[in-house]
Amino acid sequence: MAAIADPPALPARADDARSLTVAFIVMVALLVVAPFVVYPVFLMQALCFALFACAFNLLVGYVGLLSFGHALFFGWASYLCAHAAKRWGLPPEAAVLFGTAGGAVLGLAAGFLAIRRQGIYFAMITLALAQMMYFVALRAPFTGGEDGIQDVPRGRLFGIFDLSHEMTMYVFILIMVLAGFLFTYRVINSPFGEVLKAIRENEPRAVSLGYRTDRYKLVAFVLSATLAGLAGALKALVFQLASLTDVYWTMSGEVVLMTLVGGLGTIFGPVVGAFLIVAMETYLAQLGQWVLVIQGAIFVFCVLAFRRGIVGELAALLRVKL
Amino acid sequence: MFDIFGIPSQALFGQLLIGLINGSFYALLSLGLAVIFGMLNVINFTHGAQYMMGAFAAYLLLQYLGLNYWEALVIVPLLVGASGILVERLFLQYVRKLDHVYGLILTFGLALVIEGLFRNYFGSSGEPYQVPDALQGGHNLGFMFLPNYRAWVIGFSLVVCLVTWFAIERTRFGSYLRAATENPTLVRAFGINVPRMVTLTYGFGVGLAALAGVMAAPIYNVSPQMGSEVIIVVFAVVVIGGMGSILGAIVTGFGLGIIEGLTKVFFPEASSTVIFVVMAIVLLIRPAGLFGRLG
Amino acid sequence: MRAAASLAFALAALMTTVAHAQNPIPVKIGVLTDMSSLYAADTGPGSVSAAELAIHDFDPAAHNMKVDLVSADHQNKPDVGVSIARQWYDVDHVDMIVDVPNSAVALAVSDVTREKNKVFLVSGAASSDLTGPKCTPNTIHWTYDTWMLAHGTGRSIVKTGGKTWFFITADYAFGHALERDTTAVVEANGGKVLGHVFVPLNTQDFSSFLLQAQASKAQIIGLANAGGDTINSIKQGAEFGITKGGQHFAGLLVFIPDVQALGLQAAQGLIDTEPFYWDMNAGTRAWTKRWQVKQPGKFPSEIQAGVYSATLHYLKAVAALKSAADGKAVVAEMKKIPTDDPLFGKGYVRADGRTIHPAYLFQVKSPAESKYPGDDYILKATIPANEAFRPMSQDNCPLVNASK
């Protein structure tokens, strides 16, 4: 059926590839120049959130599942990475790998429970599971409760690159985040990704075509959790800290905001949204409570008049895919 | 006295009663949420903020106009309900036809705005509100000391819940409401102004939240964050009861209050999480909630 | 030719000295605090006003200094606190961070401060680890700590007959530490702890925990929590007739804004240890009056007073060194010169970073005893400076061991 619907859209595909390539080159160029102009720690934070939002977008934008518990994977991977680096003295690459693997395992467990339901119930189950694990993080001895795991060593990457150097760290984070970004792009545009979109559009039809949609959804959930885990693990190294903030439900809300502002189901939207929201929180911090009001107003505005998000609107305006 | 699992029955009864008191607030709040969801298909994240507005309105009426608790109990739900009507006209009516998710995000944003504004003007340490004179003191029930005010909270919220349930499930007006939820076009054809009905329903749900706020004011400190602290729990209650089910919201509200009370006896550290565990279990066994129907 | 050259050289030298005199020593102070959440009334904007007063009283122009002040809200999250601190040190050229309520945030900021060799003056946080195992050459702990609270309040209550205790404890590091320290004091003085209950931070309803405390029949219900949690426990305790039943609350960490929020009716009789009370003497009253210009209708907490005192002392040390650049050197200087201000009197900073001054045991007045707004405390006892804080021998602070 997809084959019948597709041909008229085919000519546009070459344009899509071109617009995406151009946008990608622009993004990489900006990110290479940025640390010479902007504070690198801010950039690294934004990059970690960009990857987190991309992971989240993979699920909501391409499978149509809104998770309200993604902080679970982000925060727990952050704890596991920090623990491995600090208490076991693992080198950074191994610590990040350990945290990411933790995200994957948690994703498998949570996904197994959650993907049986759709829509608002899916959101609520993920929220419930995340809150449960928040409770575990609060009580478990190794997480340090409200203190978190502090003073995490960044260490030497592969024993060679000293990550305590801010620029070296930035390059490491940039490469990892870009790798994650390209990976999500690859997934979305693979045959597997096409099945995911088919499930999003019409699950019963996908089932009737013989796809075991539950398996597809579970794999997508685990991939999303793994990437969220990678983002969380990297963040633990950037700030040398893993804390409760990253497992609390407000973090799950924040990633929704980032993705929504940038554009649900767009390739670059989550990145743009993450940079915008992190910048707002950083540079408006002195406004105190007004940040809350502004954030809320952005939510309202986006839903009422800006549902496609910044990148979505831009893409519609330029008539290209972004 | 005898022991149950090593806990004196005395303490157990006390905790159960307290669970019932907390359950009253859960029930009132989730009732409003259920009414709104049933009619508007919107998950009202602003509910917590509207509950907080209710408490603040009672406080402000006392401070500036000298109106007491009993007057506030009548005036505040009307005032805050009216503000809800405004919210529905200005914002919500535009998202009703979209995916549920958008309503959730919109009301979440509104909740942030309201809470932020209140924090700006009132700070966050909270304002005190006295228990009304008529309900001062309490009675010794033998197994615990029950403050009169808490007894009033249980009784009054039960009455409000039952009246609401009756109005929606057993009256002509209620049947219009339910019909309009099922098929708005058809109900419109009978000459009933459906959009106005929807607006008023939202105002009513918000009024219930404000009523809960007034009742909460003498128990808790009146503070801007009191709503955001309770809203996630109330969400869970509504989901467990079955979205949009009036009876489900009431029964689950009181029931979960009791479960939470029991957890506080046996494993207090888990008291803030037990509701989510229950929710996950219920959803896995009965996806539509205890009283909901899969639509 | 040569004369001309040397003249030019002398001129240039003269010009640089003139320029030097015209360019005052820059100092930037950051107040990192809780602007919005449960500790905002005890710290927050009031701390900023206190720091402003300190700068004003120091008179930077007279010392050829230029002092800037910034402030931010850490939202009680260690990660937010750390990223603000890093940005302040890296980008905004902040030399010193002051206040930082919430021990978790303070410990994290202390690490960053050492890494960047700046100065960190804690007034808002309670954990005695800051001058214990986690002490650094860049951090000074002002005002109070968990050891002081446990010993001041705990000991005096046991000695006046409160032998059996039940703790309602905030379920995180600060609450656990406070309970642990107080338990040690109670038991050392012949008291007994009958039980405890851990309560999640920022809990709204304490009634079931209060019932457990009631059922324990302990004479004293120790509140190892702070801010809004303490307010709610006491308020609801009154409602459930706990105090009428003969049990008493021991608020281990109570500030005057909390008492104001509770009202004297509910708070009366509370025992409380603090190193500062606005109505102590003419000096504190005069200062409070000036502070109230910015914070009308409010009364300063010990933390806010500590921010003033710490900032003033810091500026004196910078003036003595004529530079704020080297954090370690400034802290060393602060340890060298004695502290002296109208709020805490004379004192000194110990090698482990602990500021030493007397502490006072207060009791909250009844509504009948209170004559005017803010007249909330009766002074019960003075704890001399050498007894108020943990002896350095019990610190486990690496700095102290290294110097031996």
Key terms:
heterotrimer, B: 295 residues, mainly alpha, two-stranded antiparallel sheet, two-stranded antiparallel ribbon, 11 helices, C: 404 residues, alpha/beta, Rossmann fold, 2 domains, four-stranded parallel β-sheet, 20% strand
Summarize the structure.
The complex is a heterotrimer of chains A (322), B (295) and C (404). With 295 residues, chain B is mainly alpha-helical.
Could you describe the 3D structure shown?
The complex is a heterotrimer of chains A (322), B (295) and C (404). Chain A is mostly helical. The relative contact order of chain A is 0.18. Chain A has helices at residues 2-5, 10-33, 40-62, 71-86, 92-114, 119-139, 166-188, 191-201, 203-208, 213-239, 249-262, 269-283, 290-305, 309-318, and strands spanning 149-150, 156-157, 161-162, 241-242. In chain A, the strands form two sheets. A two-stranded antiparallel ribbon of chain A has the order 1-4. Chain A is globular and about 50 Å long. In chain A, helix 4 runs antiparallel to helix 5, helix 8 crosses helix 10 (213-239) and helix 11 (249-262) packs parallel to helix 14 (309-318). With 295 residues, chain B is mainly alpha-helical. Chain B has a domain at 23-223. Helix content of chain B is 71%, strand content 3%. Chain B contains eleven helices and four strands, in the order E-E-H-H-H-H-E-E-H-H-H-H-H-H-H. In chain B, the strands form two sheets. Chain B has a two-stranded antiparallel ribbon. In chain B, a hairpin with a 4-residue loop joins strand 3 (138-140) and strand 4. The radius of gyration of chain B is 19 Å and the shape is globular. In chain C, 44% of the residues lie in helices and 20% in strands. Chain C has 15 helices and 15 strands. With 404 residues, chain C is an alpha/beta fold. In chain C, the strands form four sheets. Chain C has a five-stranded parallel sheet, with helices on both faces. Chain C has a four-stranded parallel sheet with strand order 7-6-8-9, with helices on both faces.
Give a topology summary.
The complex is a heterotrimer of chains A (322), B (295) and C (404).
Chain A: H1 2-5, H2 10-33, H3 40-62, H4 71-86, H5 92-114, H6 119-139, E1 149-150, E2 156-157, E3 161-162, H7 166-188, H8 191-201, H9 203-208, H10 213-239, E4 241-242, H11 249-262, H12 269-283, H13 290-305, H14 309-318
Antiparallel strand pairs in A: 1-4, 2-3
Chain B: E1 3-4, E2 7-8, H1 9-40, H2 47-65, H3 69-90, H4 100-122, E3 138-140, E4 145-147, H5 148-170, H6 172-182, H7 184-189, H8 194-216, H9 226-241, H10 246-266, H11 274-285
Antiparallel strand pairs in B: 1-2, 3-4
Helix pairs in contact in B: 1-5, 1-8, 1-9, 1-10, 2-3, 2-4, 2-8, 2-9, 3-8, 5-6, 9-10, 9-11
Chain C: H1 2-22, E1 25-33, H2 44-58, E2 65-73, H3 78-90, E3 96-99, H4 103-116, E4 119-122, E5 139-141, H5 146-159, E6 164-170, H6 173-188, E7 192-199, H7 207-215, E8 220-224, H8 227-239, E9 248-251, H9 256-262, H10 264-267, E10 271-274, H11 282-294, H12 302-321, H13 327-336, E11 339-341, E12 345-349, E13 355-356, E14 359-364, E15 377-383, H14 385-388, H15 398-403
Parallel strand pairs in C: 1-2, 1-3, 3-4, 4-5, 6-7, 6-8, 8-9
Antiparallel strand pairs in C: 10-14, 11-12, 12-13, 14-15
Helix pairs in contact in C: 2-12, 3-4, 5-6, 8-9, 12-13
